[in-house]
Amino acid sequence: MLSQRIFGAGALAAMLLVPMVAPASPRPSGPVTVAANKQGIACNEIVANQITDKVRDFDKHPPSATDRAALTARYDALDDVLGEFQREDLVVRGVVCRTDNGRGPIEAKIAAGAAWAMALQADLLAEIWATQCPAAAHDLPASVIADAWVSLAEAMPGAPASDYPTPAPGPNGAPPTPQPTPQAIAEVIPKIQSRAAALNLDLPDFPDASDYWARGIRQKADADVATCPAPAPAPTPTK
């Protein structure tokens, strides 16, 4: 089971963005992804792939670094995508994939897509706060990248929170053969590592990537952001 905290990553960042833009319309509460899945009642990666395709498209078409309204709108759009991953996570575990054996690869796909989306949010936070508050421009992205790393760690085979089945011991009670890193996670690992390196953030090995570790980084972000000046209002769009 994936941590619900992962999908709330960057909550502090989202609150800090509120003064910059007009309040967003209430997000639809209808479980669109749930309905799509129930129609087929299939334990597969189709919906997770479709949501990941949205992240991929956002990655290919970033907003202008000088258009703060566009940056905050993209941040909100990625928050919506994370909500879609969360709903699919609930559907996979509670509706269509009732065995760990079926859930593991799909949960890896969901965790990887969520981590990728958070990496893009970290980029946006760095740009939004670059001139307003350098401390926030560093520490907010670092806290989101830490959560993204935990998202990947929790979905790795053998992790306590993983939905992969526990591998059987080897012959004569030997330790189980380590399972390979799922391809979806392997593809996202460099995206997180490169951003962490740019932020001088040391990423622990997956077994040590815990909420306790990430919480310390979030607390530092909280303390530093508290010293930032209030963000100026976003410019009114012209027609």
Describe this structure as you would to a colleague:
The structure is a single chain. The chain is 59% helix and 0% strand. It is built from eight helices and no strands. Residues 4-40 and 234-239 have low confidence and may be disordered.
Biggest sheet overview? none
General form: globular
What value does the Rg take, in angstroms?
A: 19 Å
Low-confidence stretches: 4-40, 234-239
Q: In oligomeric terms, what are we looking at? A: single chain
Structural class: mainly alpha
Tell me the number of helical segments per DSSP (H or I, 4 or more residues long): 8
* Helix-strand topology string: HHHHHHHH
Helix content: 55-70%
**Roughly what fraction of the amino acids lie in strands?**
under 5%
Distance between the termini: 46 Å
Total strands: the figure is 0
Can you give the mean pLDDT?
81
Strand and helix layout:
Elements: H1 11-17, H2 32-40, H3 46-60, H4 68-96, H5 100-128, H6 134-155, H7 183-198, H8 211-225
Helix pairs in contact: 2-4, 3-4, 3-5, 4-5, 5-6, 5-7, 6-7, 6-8
Supply database-style keywords.
mainly alpha; 8 helices; 59% helix; 0% strand; globular
Summarize the structure.
This protein has eight helices and no strands. With 239 residues, it is an all-alpha fold. Helix 3 packs antiparallel against helix 4 and helix 6 (134-155) packs antiparallel against helix 8 (211-225).
